[in-house]
Request: fold
Amino acid sequence: MTKRIDEPTGTETVGHEWDGIEELDTPMPRWWLWTFYASIAFAIGYVILYPALPGITGATKGTLGWSSRGQLAEEMQAEANRRAPMLEALSRIPIERLPEDSRLMRAAVEGGRSAFKVSCVQCHGSGASGRKGYPNLNDDDWLWGGDLKAIEYTLTNGVRQPGHEGTRMSQMPAFGRDGILDARAIADVVSYVRTVSGQDKASASARRGAAVFAANCAVCHGADAKGKREFGAPNLTDPIWLYGGDRATLTATVTNARYGVMPAWGNRLDPVTIKMLAAYVHSLGGGEDFIAVAADPEVKVDERP
Amino acid sequence: MNAPEQDVDTSRARGEITQHVLADKRSLYEKRKPVFPQAVDGFYRRLKWVIMAVTLAVYYVTPWLRWDRGAYAPDQAVLVDLAHRRFYMFAIEIWPHEFYYVAGLLVMAGIGLFLVTSVFGRAWCGYTCPQTVWTDLFQHIERFIDGDHNAQVRLEKAPWGPAKIARRLVKWSIWLMIAVATGGAWIFYFADAPSLARQFFAGEAPLVAYTTVAILTATTFILGGFLREQFCIYMCPWPRIQAAMMDERSALVTYKTWRGEPRGSVKQANKSPGVFGDCIDCLQCVNVCPTGIDIREGTQIGCITCALCIDACNNVMDQVGRPRGLIDYVTYEDAAREQKGEAPRSAWRNVLRPRTLLYFAGWGAIGVAMLFMLGTRSHLDISVLQDRNPAYVQLSDGSVRNNYTLKIRNMQTRPRRLEVTLSGIDNAVIWSDDGSREQASQRIVTTAPPDSVVRLRVFMAASGNGPAFEDFTFTVRALDEAGGSDSEKTRFERPEVAP
Reply:
């Protein structure tokens, strides 16, 4: 420990030496000390104004009354205020006229995208592409109708909700389980369905199945097997299958029937959210145009493309 | 030029620091020693006036220059439009995705500083650094109010009375006005200057404008008026970095010890000729120094190479009839050569050497590359994002649909009609979310607003029979006379058929 004066700088060393390296004891500038005191003053002010000192049951509140929860609530309120006029406009416009206002339509689609993630992805998947028993909402095949108004109706009233007036209702008989058809007839009608959907070539079994179909199935699925939306009866001639188009699945479907359900969202969500959800689902690519049918011939028929 | 002043304040230059350090009871903190630089005239002082005038004019005037860009873009020549993420500089408009131009400019600024530093030493510090320019301005005002060096020292030592208070108030008010103008000018770079000025004085400008002005006013006032050389010595990292940029052939403000030492007055020199060097120890070099150092102690961190001591010493040398250049810009190598009595290298040989040429080549290459890219950049861009969830959709007629999000960037400041076409899959059709599959073709026509990115949702349907992955190209083409197009390759996906 030998303090000495460093010759070139004229400054005293601190006295330590590490392998010949010494450190100059250069004094700090005085103003640096002031900035240090100013920081202390600032810290004291901060402790008084803001929540700072932790205690057993919570921290001090601070005289400004600021809290991160309070700030979040304020920001959420500001956002709600910003959205209020848009939501108000959405609640007033009938959904079939939504495409006329492209700005409102975009807002509805975006709102629907968020709401979909909360309420719908559990069954329909995050990409709305569904899975066995849960329809793919991206395609152009609709059980109950794919225009904005039909989607909104399905969302509001649900599918096969017991006790809910207006719910989308239909019930396929369990042809095998209830003994309506025997195993051979079921095998034949499955052959027929696989033929009309282009999966199998015509066969003797399918020819027999055509008669079974006409007698038992055509009332809902149509004589041409293209389905009927008023019953939510799927089109059996296209390559889109809700439960599967292979022999085993078709046999299971005819034997035990299917009874897909969806909640009546009108009981759980507000009408604006449902409207936004309908707009979002419609926008996924398979949405159909709404064609208003005028009851009164004086009223001009809306034939927007 | 008056006779060199011998002044009370100069004692510190003669080893007072050493005595201070030797004292037993040293403080841990050192009070700033006030510096009262004396006025001086000469080549470098005039150069500094010119540079100060140019830099201050550029700073204050630039936001007020106008530049016509048509109806859809601001008419301010230089504008950093943070709200809309645009940077305008005369004919150039930079988008956020072109930030590499800014990065390139910063790299050029860095290499430029290396270049200048390796040739002229701390020229940035001495002439163009804002800290130097505003301090210089403030010191000039100080001399205007309080008088030159001696008067300032007297006033500093005088007790606080009406006269001193009045002078201080006048000086600080002028400083404050300049500080407000400095802070005020800054915000005009970020918004339309005339309308922001109107709002600012009407009290309608955004809070951030007032805060920015307040902060920059405070920093200008404090750093220029009071902290001055303390900023350079204690806060700024650049002097330390510069030490690594300089070498033995960089020009430094140098006191030629071999010529000046030993020091002696003219009287002493006349009495005993041949004993003394050229330095007459008049302390002019110390008095004019804005950072308060003695250049005769050699190169040091406090020397910002403003070269005012060169002017001061040259004036004195002229008076006593000795050759100029006792203090001068000299390189280490030349100093050694001069000491040995050899002629210094030519200035060009100090400037043109591998290191500087390399810096210049790098600097120039980046500049040329950026100019080339700026000249050839496309004003129409397309980027394609294929939907991943789901990757494809089976349609009821057996065909398959893929969805894409197209981002089309129109960088021109006018609306344009554009067409998007697909090529590579013959049977495919595309339609956007305001069209329908029934009317779909291989072409979509859309309108892009000026200076904006259009987000276009595109649905594409093609036959279900085909490979699982098929490449094709989206092309956007402008339908106006200026034309231009851009393409991006992407792919179409189908369900994989089980083997």
Observations:
- The longest strand of chain A covers residues 13-18.
- Chain A is about 45% helix and 5% strand.
- Strands of chain A lie at 13-18, 21-24, 28-29.
